[in-house]
Amino acid sequence: MGRLIEGKWHDVWYDTKSNQGKFKREDAQLRNWVTADGSAGPTGDSGFKAESGRYHLYVSLACPWAHRTLIFRKLKQLEAHIDVSVVSPDMLEHGWTFDKATGSSGDALFEQSYMHQLYTRNKADYSGRVTVPVLWDKQTQRIVSNESSEIIRMFNSAFNELTGNTDDYYPEALRQDINDINEFVYHKINNGVYKAGFATEQAAYEEAVQALFEALEQLEQRLSTQRYLVGDTLTEADWRLFTTLIRFDSVYHGHFKCNLKQIEDYPNLAGYIRELYQWPNVAETVDFYHIKRHYYFSHTMINPTQVVPVGPDIDYTQPHNRG
Ligand SMILES: N[C@@H](CCC(=O)N[C@@H](CS)C(=O)NCC(=O)O)C(=O)O
């Protein structure tokens, strides 16, 4: 794990010392948008028109943020239009790699060894973390975006004319409600598990775990009276929650010490993740080998032996019993 400083790779862990042992996530820096006509999106430059074969998606199958983009690629039938490279689950001194011997598909575009080389290809003197997912533009040879929440919005609508798929996971009428629940889920759950897992002081850890489990209780209640996070419409908010919940019992519960309960202990949440897991084409985006291997093997300051646990053994194909 490390970061680029003016284009040079440095192998450093997150700095929690200056922040009372608390993990603080940095904002993604590369924030352009693919749009149907190539006009500028809410941020960044124009010139990224939705075209078949023009964009390439770099992901880790372990990463919950990258996982969102893989799900949207399936839901919106973009497989024929956007190809993918998968990094190795092992993220050690070089950060994300394309080492085929340890589970990467290889870098389909440039046959590079390391993800940080893609960032310096985009900007030679780049400074910042080298994260996945990344959406790359083959035409301008630039990174369009390294922010998953925005990549899924592009996938949701920009390519509709190409695919003919007009399913909408961010419908106009529900946007305020979706934004509100996203905000809650992001801070308390998606990033909440990381705040617990990467905390380096007891108080910081306990604070994060309390907030996380209070939030899970609230979601369990919410799903007792409605099918999805925003009423009875499945939206992006559900997919954003799903990628954290599906990793919870396998890695966050043990590795990140989020162990007051498992998701399996919450009847509504347990049924809900099964329903989403069983959604057409979604199960094939879930790879528990990459998920467990990445966290337990890469975070050597949390798990120095790098031993990956065998369990838990959970059947997500069981009936979800949600009507
Ligand atoms: N805001 C980003 C966060 C992505 C992110 O943090 N990805 C993790 C993998 S789960 C990563 O690449 N971490 C490497 C690092 O922080 O150095 C997004 O949602 O796309």
Question: How would you characterize this protein structure?
Answer:
Glutathione binds at residues 96, 129-132, 147-148. The chain has helices spanning 64-75, 115-122, 148-157, 160-163, 175-190, 192-197, 202-225, 236-252, 267-277, 288-298, and strands at residues 3-5, 8-10, 55-59, 83-86, 128-129, 134-137, 142-145. The protein is of the alpha+beta class and 323 residues long. It folds into two domains: 3-163, 3-Layer(aba) Sandwich (Glutaredoxin); 172-279, Glutathione S-transferase Yfyf (Class Pi), Chain A, domain 2, CATH 1.20.1050.10. The strands form two sheets. Strands 4-3-6-7 form a four-stranded mixed sheet, with helices on both faces. Strand 6 and strand 7 form a beta hairpin. Helix 1 (64-75) packs across helix 8 and helix 7 (202-225) crosses helix 9. The termini are far apart. The mean pLDDT is 97. The structure holds glutathione. The site of glutathione has 14 residues, from helix 3. Glutathione binds next to helix 3.
- Main β-sheet description: 4 strands, mixed
Q: Could you give the order of strands across the largest sheet?
A: 4-3-6-7
Which residues form runs of ≥5 with pLDDT under 50? none
Into which percentage range does the β-strand content fall? 5-15%
Protein name: Glutathionyl-hydroquinone reductase YqjG
GO molecular function: glutathione transferase activity
Organism: Pseudoalteromonas rubra
Topology:
Blueprint: E1 3-5, E2 8-10, E3 55-59, H1 64-75, E4 83-86, H2 115-122, E5 128-129, E6 134-137, E7 142-145, H3 148-157, H4 160-163, H5 175-190, H6 192-197, H7 202-225, H8 236-252, H9 267-277, H10 288-298
Parallel strand pairs: 3-4
Antiparallel strand pairs: 1-2, 1-5, 3-6, 6-7
Helix pairs in contact: 1-3, 1-8, 5-7, 5-8, 7-9, 8-9
The chain binds glutathione.
